[in-house]
Specification:
Strand order of the largest sheet: 1-3-2
Order of helices and strands: HEHHEEHHH
Number of strands: 3
Largest sheet: 3 strands, antiparallel
Radius of gyration: 18 Å
Number of domains: 2
CATH architecture of the largest domain: Orthogonal Bundle
Length: 143
Amino acid sequence: MNRLGDLERAIMEVLWQTESSLTVRQVSNGLCQRNLAHTTVMTVLDRLAKKGFARRERDGRAWRYRPAATREAYVAELMLTALHQTGDRDTALARFAQSVSGAEAVVLREALARLEQEQFSEGDSEIALWGNWPSRRCSPRSP
């Protein structure tokens, strides 16, 4: 998964903050402390759409943009990418588990229990984090 650059991240934050799709002008207005040209924001939004981070739809002559997935799905994919880069996934996971707070550990246990129940009931051994963006499916402990 590609990481977002600073400007891409700022634009995605604007998109993530609303449930409706936005025009380039609306995204520009939502950017804090940035004095960017309309064409710059339009170019970045176009690139985000081509990379699969944003979805766009025609609205007359303009395009409207919305995130392709949630902020949480993006962060989860970054975490999986980092995990994939380690030589020893088990050790990395164990170290991660040691670093979370008690409350976070409870959330992880509950999420794992739900996934285990869903997999048992559906007979699925892979976990799809988000529809088809990006179209990557990951096994919890794939090498």
